[in-house]
Write a structure and sequence with these properties.
The structure holds three protein chains of three kinds.
Chain A: H1 2-9, H2 12-16, H3 23-32, E1 40-41, E2 52-57, E3 70-75, E4 79-82, E5 88-93, E6 97-103, H4 105-110, E7 117-122, E8 131-133, H5 178-210, H6 217-234, H7 239-267, H8 272-294, E9 309-311, E10 314-316, H9 318-340, H10 342-352, H11 354-359, H12 364-389, H13 397-412, H14 417-434, H15 443-457
Parallel strand pairs in A: 2-8
Antiparallel strand pairs in A: 1-5, 2-5, 3-4, 3-6, 6-7, 9-10
Chain B: H1 11-15, H2 28-38, E1 51-62, E2 65-76, E3 80-84, H3 91-98, E4 106-111, E5 114-115, H4 121-127, E6 129-131, H5 144-150, H6 170-186, H7 202-213, E7 220-224, H8 232-247, E8 251-255, H9 259-265, E9 268-273, E10 276-281, H10 283-288, H11 290-297, H12 305-314, H13 319-324
Parallel strand pairs in B: 3-8, 3-9, 6-7, 7-8
Antiparallel strand pairs in B: 1-2, 1-4, 4-5, 9-10
Chain C: H1 3-12, H2 17-35, H3 43-59, H4 64-86, H5 91-110, H6 115-118, H7 131-135, E1 143-146, E2 149-152, H8 159-181, H9 183-193, H10 195-200, H11 205-228, H12 240-253, H13 260-282, H14 290-311, H15 320-324
Antiparallel strand pairs in C: 1-2
Helix pairs in contact in C: 1-13, 2-8, 2-11, 2-12, 2-13, 3-4, 3-5, 3-11, 4-11, 9-11, 12-13, 13-14
The chains are: A alpha+beta, B alpha/beta, C mainly alpha.
Chain lengths: 470, 328, 327
C-alpha cells in the first residue's frame, strides 16, 4: 500500500479540492453535532433564514413531465422523494453545503436526459444560493452518461459508506413491457455476475490457499478503477494502456502487501481470524486514503458517451459487451491456469492441504505469493471494467461490492474456484432480477438473503464439502 | 524422553498391583466379561451375551470412498474392547458416527437399547457414551480444573440466568471440584490444576481429556488412541486407570496402535480394515490370526512400543480426511 | 489555537453518550467474541434493529419500557434467525452471515418503499421518539456545567442521557463480570476454545451459542437506542463501519476482559477527537481541508487497528498468557 500512497502523492493538488460531503461524514459528524436534522421532502419549498431548498421539475427531452420518478438527495443531508403530477419535486434542507440530487440512470436514459445527478451548493445566508435548482438536462460533472442498464450504478459518490443506492424507476414498471424487462434484467444480471466473478475468484483463491477472508479485497477493486482513472484522465493514456497500468499497480500492491504484511503474519503463526481483523484495518486505511486523495465524487474513467443499441430484446452498448468478453476470457484463462499449468496445480494442491503440499515439495510461500499477485491483479482488472460499466468509480465502490463478493464466495463454497464463478452469477442474476418484484433499492438485500437461504439448505455452499471432526 | 527405551514387558505384574494406599483392584467385572466372552466365536460381527452398543449395516461414504461399512458390531458391557486397524481403516470415522459427530449414509445403532440415529453428539454424551479425540481437544485457555469442570453433568449454574445467582449453584460447583480433584489426582495432574491446559505436554493432554471424560461417570467411554504421545512412565498409570474403569462398571472401547497394550488389557479385539470389520476375537487368537497379521500387524507386531509411537506420529492423517478436504 | 478548548473537547468524549453506546455495543461483542469466540461482523445490525424497534414503537405512542422490550425482542428474533442456520457451521460462515444480515437490515430500512415505517434513508427524526425519554428525566430543564463541560440537562445531547447511558454500561459490566466467573461463562469459554470438545462432553453447544448471540445482541440493541437518542435514527449512520469501530474498540481494550470494552471506547473516541482537533487547529485549511482531516483520522484508526492486532493482540487489559496458547 505504500506504493499506492506514493503513486497518489504525485497528483494531490488536482484531487484535494474535490467535495467531501459524504453520508459517512454525515454519520461521523452526527457524533459531534447534536441537532443534525435530516432534509425533508416537501411539496413546495420556500427558502427562509433557517432552511434552503433543492428542487426542480423533472421533464423528459420533449419537456413532458416525468411523473412518479424517485429523486434522492444526498450530501450534507439526505432524503428521498418522488415527482408529482407535474414532475415537480422539492427538498427543504437545513445545513449549508453541497447537495447532490440523483435520479435512476435508467429513468434518465429512458427520458433522454443527459445526466442523472447534479450537485448544487446551498448557502442559506446568500440570496443567490438559498435555492438550488436541478435540471438533469445538461451533462453533469459526475455521472456523465446514463448507464445502459439499470444495474448497480453507484450514485454520485454520495451514498453512504456501504450502500449502493440505485433508485427505482417506478414510472416504467408497467406490466406491458414486463417481458422485455425480464430479458434486460437477466442480461444485466449476467454481466454484473461476470464482473463479480472476476473479483470473487481472486478472493476465493486467497481464502483457499491461506484461509483468510480478505475484507480489503473491495479496496483492491477500487484501486484498479481509480488507477485507470488516473491513467486516462490525468496521464492522458489510451484506455487500454491505463487498464494495463491499473493491473500492474494492482499486482504490485498484491505483492507488496503479501511481503510486508501477510507473509510476516503467517510466519508468526497469527491466526486467520486475527488476520481478518487486520484486513478490516487495511480496508479502512485504503478506503479513507482514496477519499483523502480522490475526494468523495464518482470519477469517470472515460468521458465518451457510448451510444446504446438494440440486441434482440436487450439494450446494450459496445463497452459493456467488450467488458463482458474480457471478463469471460480472463475467467477461462484463470481456470486454464488452475487446471492445466504446473503452478496452477500447485495452487490447488495448497488449497487442498497446505501441509501435504509442502511435504511433497511444493513451495507454499511461492504459491501464496503468486495467488496474492493474481488475486489483486484480477481485482484491479475488475475495477477497471466495473468503472467503465458503471460510468465511474468512487472511493467506496469496492466496499459496496465487497459484501456481494463475500456472498458469491460463500454461496459457491469457501475455497472452491468454480464455486465463486457460479456463486457470482447467481448473486448477479438474483440481484438484478429481483428488482422486477421488489423495490430496486432493496435488490442487494435479496442477493444477501439468497446467501442465507442457501446456507440454511446446504451449509457447505454449492460446491463445498464438509469436514471431518476430530 | 529417556524412558522411551525401557521395555514394557510384564504388564501382568502391575495389572493386579495395589496402587498406594488402596486394596487390590477387584476383578469382578473382568471375571464376568471373561466368562461371557469365553464362549463367543471369533468371527467378525458375532453377537455377544450382554451388548451395550449394537451397530447394524452402518456405512459412510466420502465422495467415492467408502470409509466405513460395518455390517454388524456389538460391544460387550463392562468389557474393554480394542479397535485396531491400519491408518485409514475408518476407526475414527466409526467413532464419529457412533457419537453423532458424523451422519452415516445408512445404518442403525443402539446404545443400551436406545436407537441413536440422528441423535446429536451432546445427547449421546448425556446418555452416557463419552468419547475422546485422536487429536486431543483440550481448552487451551482454560485452566486444567476448568477443563475438568466442563466435563461434569449439566448443573443449574450453566443456565444463563441462574448463573447470575451463585447461591443456586455453589453447592454443585463444590461437589464437582471435589470430584475433579480426585480424578486429577488419579491421573497425576493435580499439581497442574491451576495451569492453563495449553501449557500441558501432549501426553498430559491425553490424560486430561480422559479424566475429563470420566467426570460424568459414563457407561461407555470411547478412547481414540489414548496412548499416543504418553510417555512410558505415565502409560503404566494410564493402563491402571483403564483397568480400574472396568471395575467401576464402565465399558471401554479404545482405538490403539500399541499392540502390547492391546494384548494385555483388552478383553476383546476387533480389527478394521478399509472400513470393514475383518476379524474379532480374544486378543490371543486375533493376534495370532495370520490374516490379521498380514493385513495389519505385519512385521511390526513385536516391535517395542516406543518405536511404533514414532512411526505413528509422522504418518499422515487417514485417507478419509484428505479425500474430503476442500477441493479447489 | 485554543489549547484548553482542545482538551475539553477531547475529554468531553470521555463521557459522551456515543462513547457509552459504543462501550455497550463492545460489551455485547465481547460476549460474542471474547467469551464464545463467535465472529459477529454485524453488531451494527443489532444496534440498528434496536434503534428502529425503540423509535418506531415510541412514535406509535408506546410507553418507554414497552419500547425497550420491543427493541430487545427484535434483537432476540434476529439472533434466532441468524443463529439457527449458521451456528453449527464454522466461524467464517457466521461472520459472513451476520455481515450480510446487518446489511439487509440497513438496506431494507433505508429503502424508499419503507418510508412510512422507517422513514427511508432520511430516518426518524428525534422529536418523534425522544420526548418520552426526555420527559422521564428527574432534572429541571435548563443547562448545567460540571467541571469542564456544559450540556443541556434533558434535551438531546444531555446530562440525562449521559447518566442513563453510563448507568447502563456499569450494569452491563457488572453482569458480564458475573457471567465471566460463572459456570455458564465457563461453558462459553469452552466453546470458544473447542466447541466439538464441549459437545463431546454433553453440553448443548448450539443452545449456549444462541444464548450468547442473543445476550450480546441485546446489549447491541440497547447500545443502538443509546446511539440514536441524542441524534436521529439514520440507517446509514449504523452501517458496517460501526461494526468495525466496535471491533477496534474491543480489540483495543482487550477481548475477554470485563473493563476492556469500556476503556477501549473511551480511548478511541478521546484520542480520535484529539488527533482530529489538533490537525484542524494546526494544519491550515489550504493544505488539508477539514473533510480530509476526517478521512485522515480514520486512516490513523485503521493503522492503529492493524498494529494492535499484530503487536498487542491481547489489547490494553488483556492477559498475554491467555494468548500464548492460541490455536
Amino acid at each position: 500500500m505504500t506504493a499506492v500512497r506514493r503513486k497518489l502523492r504525485k497528483y494531490p493538488a488536482r484531487m484535494l479540492l474535490s467535495a467531501m460531503f459524504l453520508m459517512l461524514l454525515l454519520a461521523i459528524s452526527g457524533v459531534w453535532s447534536t441537532t443534525a436534522q435530516a432534509a425533508q421532502p416537501v411539496p413546495v419549498c420556500n427558502p427562509t433564514g433557517t432552511n434552503g431548498c433543492v428542487n426542480g421539475i423533472l421533464q423528459d427531452a420533449n419537456r413532458n413531465p416525468v411523473v412518479g420518478a424517485t429523486v434522492t438527495l444526498s450530501g450534507k443531508e439526505s432524503a428521498t422523494t418522488t415527482t408529482d403530477d407535474t414532475g415537480k419535486w422539492a427538498f427543504s434542507v437545513t445545513a449549508d453545503g453541497k447537495y447532490t440530487a440523483t435520479i435512476d440512470a435508467g429513468v434518465a436514459k429512458d427520458h433522454g436526459l443527459k445526466a442523472n445527478a447534479e450537485t448544487v451548493d446551498i448557502e442559506k445566508s446568500d440570496f443567490s444560493k438559498q435555492r438550488g435548482v436541478v435540471r438533469f438536462d445538461k451533462p453533469g460533472e459526475t455521472t456523465s452518461s446514463p448507464s445502459a442498464s439499470g444495474s448497480a450504478s453507484t450514485s454520485s459518490g454520495s451514498s453512504s459508506s456501504s450502500s449502493a443506492s440505485t433508485q427505482s424507476s417506478s414510472s416504467n414498471s408497467a406490466g406491458a413491457n414486463f417481458g422485455a424487462r425480464v430479458w434486460q434484467q437477466l442480461y444485466s444480471g449476467i454481466i454484473f455476475g461476470l464482473m463479480l466473478a472476476l473479483m470473487s475468484v481472486g478472493m476465493n483463491l486467497v481464502y483457499g490457499t491461506t484461509g483468510l477472508s480478505s475484507f480489503s479485497h473491495g479496496e483492491q477493486v477500487t484501486l484498479g478503477g481509480l488507477m485507470a482513472y488516473v491513467g486516462v484522465q490525468l496521464l492522458h493514456m489510451p484506455l487500454w494502456a491505463a487498464a494495463i497500468f491499473a493491473i500492474i499497480i494492482g499486482a504490485a500492491s498484491g505483492l507488496l502487501q503479501n511481503e510486508l504484511v501477510w507473509a510476516p503474519l503467517r510466519r508468526k503463526h497469527v491466526g486467520t481470524m486475527q488476520q481478518m481483523i487486520v484486513t478490516i484495518g487495511l480496508s479502512m486505511v485504503l478506503q479513507y486514503l482514496f477519499q483523502f486523495f480522490f475526494g468523495g465524487n464518482v470519477k469517470g474513467i472515460t468521458t465518451a458517451v457510448d451510444q446504446g443499441f438494440q440486441l434482440g430484446p436487450i439494450t446494450t452498448d459496445t463497452a459493456t459487451l467488450v467488458s463482458a468478453a474480457i471478463a469471460i476470457i480472463v475467467i477461462i484463462g484463470v481456470t486454464f491456469f488452475l487446471y492445466r499449468t504446473r503452478l496452477g496445480r500447485a495452487t490447488r494442491a495448497v488449497s487442498d492441504n497446505a501441509a501435504l503440499a509442502s511435504a511433497s515439495g511444493i513451495n507454499v510461500e511461492q504459491v501464496v505469493r503468486v495467488v496474492w499477485i493474481l488475486s489483486c491483479a484480477l481485482a484491479a482488472l475488475s475495477g477497471v471494467l466495473m468503472g467503465i460499466y458503471l460510468n465511474g468509480i468512487a472511493w467506496n465502490t469496492g466496499a459496496v461490492l465487497l459484501l456481494l463478493m463475500f456472498s458469491a464466495v460463500t454461496l459457491g463454497g469457501l475455497g472452491t474456484a468454480n464455486g465463486a464463478l457460479v456463486g457470482s452469477l447467481v448473486i448477479g442474476i438474483v440481484a438484478d432480477m429481483s428488482s422486477l418484484f421488489i423495490p430496486n433499492d432493496m435488490r442487494y438485500a435479496s442477493a444477501l438473503a439468497i446467501l442465507i437461504i442457501v446456507l440454511l439448505l446446504r451449509p457447505q455452499g454449492l460446491f463445498g464439502k464438509l469436514q471431518r471432526v476430530g | 524422553m529417556a524412558e522411551q527405551n525401557i521395555p514394557f514387558h510384564d504388564l501382568a505384574k502391575w495389572a493386579t498391583k495395589a496402587p498406594e494406599g488402596e486394596e487390590l483392584i477387584s476383578t469382578a467385572f473382568g471375571d464376568k466379561v471373561e466368562k461371557d466372552l469365553a464362549f463367543v466365536d471369533n468371527t467378525p460381527g458375532v453377537p455377544k451375551p450382554d451388548p451395550i452398543l449394537v451397530a447394524d449395516s452402518v456405512t459412510r461414504k466420502f465422495g467415492g470412498v467408502t470409509a466405513v461399512d460395518v455390517q454388524h458390531f456389538e460391544i460387550e458391557r463392562h468389557g474393554i474392547t480394542a479397535l485396531i486397524g491400519p491408518n485409514g481403516a475408518g476407526k475414527t470415522t466409526f467413532f464419529n458416527l457412533m457419537t453423532g459427530f458424523d451422519t452415516p449414509n445408512s445404518g442403525t445403532w443402539q446404545f443400551d437399547g436406545h436407537p441413536l440415529s440422528s441423535v446429536s453428539p451432546e445427547k449421546v454424551a448425556r446418555m452416557g457414551m463419552v468419547r475422546t479425540f485422536q487429536l486431543t481437544k483440550v481448552m487451551s485457555r482454560l485452566t486444567v480444573l476448568d477443563n475438568m469442570l466442563l466435563g461434569a453433568p449439566v448443573q443449574p449454574g450453566e443456565g444463563m440466568l441462574t448463573s447470575l445467582f451463585p447461591v443456586r449453584w455453589r453447592k454443585y460447583e463444590k461437589q464437582n471440584i471435589e470430584k475433579a480433584e480426585s480424578l486429577l489426582e488419579r491421573f497425576l495432574l493435580i499439581k497442574k490444576k491451576d495451569d492453563f491446559a495449553g501449557s500441558l505436554s501432549g501426553g498430559q493432554r491425553k490424560l486430561l481429556e480422559m479424566a475429563r471424560a470420566l467426570m460424568r461417570d459414563p457407561q461407555l467411554v470411547m478412547l481414540d488412541e489414548p496412548m499416543a504421545g504418553v510417555n512410558p512412565a505415565l502409560k503404566q498409570s494410564l493402563l491402571d486407570c483403564i483397568m480400574s474403569l472396568r471395575e467401576d462398571g464402565t465399558t471401554v472401547l479404545f482405538v490403539e496402535h500399541d499392540m502390547n497394550m492391546v494384548r494385555h488389557i483388552a478383553d476383546w479385539v476387533t480389527v478394521m480394515a478399509e472400513g470393514k470389520i475383518v476379524a474379532e476375537g480374544q486378543p490371543k487368537s486375533v493376534m495370532n490370526d495370520q490374516a490379521v497379521v498380514d493385513a495389519y500387524l505385519g512385521a511390526r507386531a513385536n516391535i517395542d512400543l516406543g518405536d511404533i509411537e514414532d512411526i505413528e506420529e509422522v504418518e499422515q492423517p487417514p485417507a478419509a480426511t484428505q479425500a474430503e478436504g476442500a477441493e479447489l | 489555537m485554543d489549547f484548553m478548548n482542545l482538551i475539553s473537547n477531547s475529554l468531553g468524549e470521555l463521557i459522551a453518550p456515543t462513547t457509552a453506546a459504543y462501550a455497550l455495543a463492545a460489551i455485547g461483542l465481547n460476549i460474542h467474541f471474547g467469551m464464545t469466540g463467535m465472529f459477529n461482523m454485524g453488531q451494527a445490525g443489532f444496534m440498528l434493529l434496536g434503534a428502529y424497534g425503540f423509535a418506531i414503537s415510541q412514535s406509535m405512542g408506546w410507553n418507554l419500557f414497552a419500547s425497550v422490550c420491543m427493541a430487545l425482542l427484535l434483537a432476540g428474533i434476529y439472533a434466532l434467525l441468524l443463529g439457527i442456520p449458521t451456528l453449527r457451521l464454522g466461524p467464517d460462515y457466521l461472520s459472513m452471515v451476520t455481515l450480510a444480515a446487518a446489511e439487509i437490515v440497513r438496506i431494507v430500512g433505508r429503502s424508499t418503499s419503507m418510508t412510512k415505517i422507517t422513514g427511508g434513508s432520511g430516518g426518524i427524526s428525534p422529536q418523534n421518539f425522544t420526548t418520552q425519554f426526555e420527559g422521564a428525566s428527574p432534572f429541571p430543564s435548563g443547562r448545567s456545567t460540571f467541571l469542564l463541560w456544559t450540556y443541556s440537562n434533558n434535551v438531546a445531547d444531555s446530562w440525562w442521557i449521559r447518566l442513563v447511558g453510563w448507568a447502563l454500561v456499569l450494569i452491563a459490566a457488572l453482569l458480564t463480570w458475573r457471567w465471566f466467573k460463572s459456570p455458564w461463562g465457563r461453558v462459553l469459554k469452552g466453546i470458544r476454545e473447542d466447541e466439538n470438545a464441549v459437545r463431546s462432553l454433553g453440553k448443548p453447544v448450539t443452545r449456549f451459542k444462541l444464548q450468547s448471540l442473543f445476550l450480546g445482541g441485546a446489549f447491541g440493541a440497547l447500545a443502538g437506542i443509546l446511539f440514536v437518542l441524542p441524534r436521529s435514527v439514520q440507517p446509514d449512520s449504523l452501517g458496517r463501519q460501526v461494526t468495525f469501530y466496535t471491533w477496534t474498540i474491543l480489540l483495543m481494550g482487550g477481548a475477554a476482559t470485563v473493563l476492556g470494552p469500556i476503556l477501549g471506547s473511551c480511548l478511541l473516541w478521546v484520542s480520535l477527537t484529539f488527533i482530529k482537533e489538533l490537525m484542524r487547529d494546526t494544519i491550515p485549511d489550504t493544505i488539508i481541508s477539514s473533510n480530509q482531516v476526517e478521512a485522515l483520522g480514520w486512516v490513523i484508526m485503521g493503522i492503529a487497528l492493524m498494529c494492535l492486532v499484530i503487536f498487542r493482540p491481547q489489547g490494553l487489559m488483556g492477559d498475554r498468557r491467555e494468548l500464548a496458547f492460541h490455536g
